[in-house]
Structures are given as structure tokens and as C-alpha cells.
Amino acid sequence: MARHLVLISDAEATCGVEEFARQTARRLGGSGATHVLDADMPNLTKALAGAADLIINLPVVAWKKKLAAPILAAAHARMAGREVTIILHEWADLALARRLSYLPLLPLATRILFSAPEVMAQFESTPVSRIVTKRRAVVPIPPNFAVPGWTSGSARSDRLAADRAKGTMILAQFGSIYPKKDPLVLLDVAAELMRRGIELRLVFIGSFVKDGGTVEADFWARVEALGLKDRVEVTGYLKDAAKLYGLFAEVDAFVYPLSEGLTSRRASVLAAALSGRPVVVSAPQRADSLAHHRLFNVLLKAGTLQLVPRDATAAMFADAVLATRGMPHRPVMDGRQIDAVWSDLIATLSA
Questions:
Q1: What's the CA gap between 189 and 27, in Å, rounded?
Q2: Taken in order 197, 199, 203, 208, is the CA torsion positive or negative?
Q3: In this predicted model, which residue has the larger pLDDT, 26 or 183?
Q4: Judging by DSSP bridges, how do beta strands 53-58 and 32-36 pair with one another?
Q5: How far apart are CA 256 and CA 6, in angstroms?
Q6: Is the peptide bond before 328 cis (omega within 30 degrees of 0)?
Q7: What's the average model confidence in pLDDT over 23-41?
Q8: In the chain, what are the domain boundaries?
Q9: Is the distance from CB of 53 to CB of 84 less than 8 angstroms?
Q10: GO molecular-function annotation terms (predicted)?
Q11: Radius of gyration from C-alpha coordinates of the chain
């Protein structure tokens, strides 16, 4: 009988948080099971039978359609004498309306786990932290994708390979495209490299967030203004890990300008780094940002993660990118190191 019941969504295109929830249930093995988040309490009652702990990851996918469902689920679990674990992946970065929607939910938690020290600090600086459980901890967030044992080519990876053969530098960023990843800064970096005479292509491996704003329109307007129209490509959402890492194999360097600095919740950075390609990324803001996450520390020591100052200009990023040329492309990391991060997480969940 499953000891932990992990709430998931029925979404087909998963975000990082959703993928984490599903992989967590799989990694829990026989002690973990999943239940699709809805307001069907009889089905939840059946799913909770025998379980000791209900696990809810926030933010919730399609939250506006599920305002009441996580609250009802947590309240139901508490009334049934179960523990409620909330894993909070973001806080200050969430829209105010979204944070407010979680206020009735958070006091129902018997413990709260955080994806990074920064997220914990953001939460603890808000009034709601004074009325919720003090059972809190930071947990390591493993990569979104398991590194496949083999890769698969595609028409897109074939085009990139042909460009590389001609001497074109392939830069990329993996993950959802949204303002906190500063995609416009990366466009400026590409423009700076081209001003220096570097032939390049820039590939965003992912899709734009659907937030009702102007993220995508602003992105393409900036591409046009910088004269990068024929140099920039957005792949859209890719689910197949073999094809994904087939694309990664044709990348010379990944680039992540992050105004907040690198934090341990950046699973997309981990996934990119596991390709063995160098990752140029803004340095963490805190000295302890990565201390709890063994995989980030391994990647830093290996030189796969190349840190630049958080206030780095496009020119400084361009210098760092050019410095990666000639660096050996390290083989994909031993899967046992990824398993070790999952073991750290599962040990915390099971404590």
C-alpha cells in the first residue's frame, strides 16, 4: 500500500513542477502513488486509504481552474488524520493573485519543503509564514528529465549539425520562455557576438509561457529589432527525452542570464548541463544557494557550469561564451549521481 499520495494534474504538456511531481511518485516506488487533482472527494478518499501523507506541489498547473481543489484535498486529508506535505517551488516570483489563492491551503500543511534557500527566505519574509507549520526544510530538486541511454536525431538536429560543420556556433537555452529567464538579454548577447563577427544560431528549446501577457510578442519584436530574424529559432515543447538530448548534442554552449542568479530550483539548467555542454549562467546570489544540492556542486567542480556576475552585461556574457570554445564536451554524467539526488529527496519525504 502506498505511503505517499502525490497529487498531479491531467496535463499532457508538463511543466517542470508537474514533471517533478510525477517523477517523485515513480521514485517513491511502492510507497508512492498519484491522484489527479480534482474536486472528487469520494475518489480522493479511496486514494488516501492506507496513505499516510498527501503531497502537493505548488504552483498548481492551470491554477485558475483549480482554485478550490487543492484546498479541499488538503482539508480532506487532515480530517482523515493524514499528513499534508506542500513542496513550494516558487513564491515571490508568483503573481500576487496566485499567492493569495494559496493562503487557505498553506495553514493545512503539516510540513512545507522548499526548492531553494531563496524560496524559503521569500516565504519566511511574508506574514503568512507566522501562521503555518514550522516544520520546514530545503530539498534538492533533481533534473526534470532522466538522461536517456541513447539519443535520437531529428530534422532540426540535422540542420544544427550541418550548421556546426560549417563553423556556425550553436547557442541555446532549454526550458519555458518567460521574463525571469531574461530571454531578451540572451538576444542581446547573440547580437553582441554577431557584432564581433561570430557566425551563430540561437535555439530556444521550449515554448513560451501562456500567461496572457506580451512575452512572445515582445520576444519577436526584439529579435526583429536586433536583426536576428534568421538566427533565432523556438522549438516549442518537446517531450521525447531521446530527441531532446539529440538536440542538446548539437549545442556548443547553453546560456542563462538570470537577474536573480542561479538557484537550485533551476531544473532546466541541470537538464542542459547533463548534456555535457558548457552552461554559462549568472552566479548565485547567496553563498549557500547550492550547498544542499550535490549535483550542482559536482557540475561546478567539473567546470560544466561557468558562472558570470549577476549584473553582467551582454558583452561580459559574450566573453564568457567565447571562452567556452575548445572546452571538451564532457560525457553525460553517471546516472548514479542523479539517483543520489533523488535519494536525498526521497529520504526527506520519508522521514
A1: 39
A2: positive
A3: 183
A4: unpaired
A5: 31
A6: no
A7: 79
A8: 4-138, 155-333
A9: yes
A10: glycosyltransferase activity
A11: 21
Fold of 4-138: Rossmann fold (3.40.50)
- Residue 6 banded pLDDT, cuts 50, 70, 90: confident
Cα 240 to Cα 146: distance, rounded to the nearest angstrom: 11
> d(Cα 254, Cα 174) in Å, to the nearest integer?
8
pTM: 0.83
Cβ-in-10-Å burial (0-12, 13-18, 19+) of 176 comes to middle
Render pLDDT for 52-93 as a digit per residue (tens, 0 to 9).
899 999 988 765 667 788 888 899 889 989 999 999 999 998
Mean per-residue pLDDT of the chain:
88
For the chain, the straight-line distance linking the first and the last C-alpha, in angstroms and rounded, comes to 17
- The order of strands in the sheet holding 253-256 is 232-234, 200-205, 169-174, 253-256, 279-282, 305-308
Nearest to 257 by CA among 149, 348, 173, 159: 173
Residue corresponding to grid cell 556546426: 164
> For residues 143 and 338, is the Cβ–Cβ distance under 8 A?
yes
Could you give the CA distance from residue 85 to residue 44 in angstroms, rounded to a whole number? Answer: 16
CA distance 55 to 253: 36
Main-chain dihedrals φ then ψ at residue 114, nearest 5 degrees: -120, 150
Contacting residues for 36 by C-beta, under 8 A, at least 6 apart: 7, 8, 9, 10
More confident of the two residues 44 and 249:
249
4-138 and 155-333: same fold?
A: yes
* pLDDT over threshold 80, residue 169: yes
Q: Going by C-beta distance under 8 Å and a sequence separation of 6 or more, which residues neighbour residue 81?
A: none
pLDDT at 83: 93
- For residue 156, pLDDT over 80 is answered with yes
- How does residue 17 score in pLDDT terms, banded at 50, 70 and 90? confident
pLDDT in tens, 267-282: 889 889 988 899 999 9
State the virtual CA torsion across 311, 315, 319, 321 in degrees, nearest 10: 80
The CATH-assigned architecture of domain 155-333 is 3-Layer(aba) Sandwich (3.40)
